[in-house]
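Whether sequence alone determines local backbone shape is best considered at the level of individual chains. Part of our work consisted of pairing the sequence of a single chain with a tokenised description of its backbone. This step matters because it turns folding into a mapping between discrete strings. For completeness, the protein is quoted in full, as a sequence line and a line of structure tokens:

_____
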Amino acid sequence: SSGSNLQYLGLLSAAVLFLHTATSYLEELLFKTLGYTYASFMILFMCVLYVLLYLVLVSALGPRRCKHRIVLAFERIHYFDIAAVCLLYVGSNTISKTALNYVSIPLQMVFKTCKLVAVMLSSGIILGKRYTMKEYVVAGCFVSGMALFTYGDWIGSGGASRMDQPLGQLDMMLLTGIMWLCLALSCDSALGNLQEKVQKAGTIGGEIELMYLQSVVGGASLLILTAATGELRDALLLCSRDARVLGALTAWAVCNLAGIVVLLRVIGDFSAVV
């Protein structure tokens, strides 16, 4: 019934809101307080953690069932679709975390509020959906309101008074951060719709299997990248020396993984725009 669906959506929305708040706090702690800077390793850590949790969970069903589920997940999905989803998944997460080296969390949240309109526009290209002008106006008003609220909160908390660096250097950092955020927004707008397309096509078991595939392919790509750039070694050394960083990184990965799984459930049961 519509009532039960509304309650179900409300429960999922509350879970997403709570987990998003927790991850935002932990990102602020890592990047702004503990001096963490390794964005690619951050996503690699999350991917490895999810793969391990997935294997433990599925192994509990028995060795034969475990092997069947893993192989089935790869056999039933179109290779082009999963490649695009994994590329966008890694790109969106890594780029948005890289931006935190240049901008504040509130500014990142302002850009995230713009995701709604971007997803609506890309859904017309990827899924062939159409929206009325009224729906675009409502979405635009919602985005504007959220952006103004976040900006006001940032000003009220003294975020605009950070002038401990030369103005030119601050401007360059801000522009660089905005560039990364725009790129992440572009990835996000396509990612949600591609995930919806894959899930509703029935090519995989569900959000858990989709998350597993994203983590395997994305983790392998990031392992090569971080090893080549030296980020893997530096990040591992930092985690081994500072228990606070390792603890915050682990808590962030758990909260973010849970949030992504819940978000994928929303996308699968409703839509990427929701």
About this structure: The chain is about 85% helix and 0% strand. The chain has a mean pLDDT of 76.
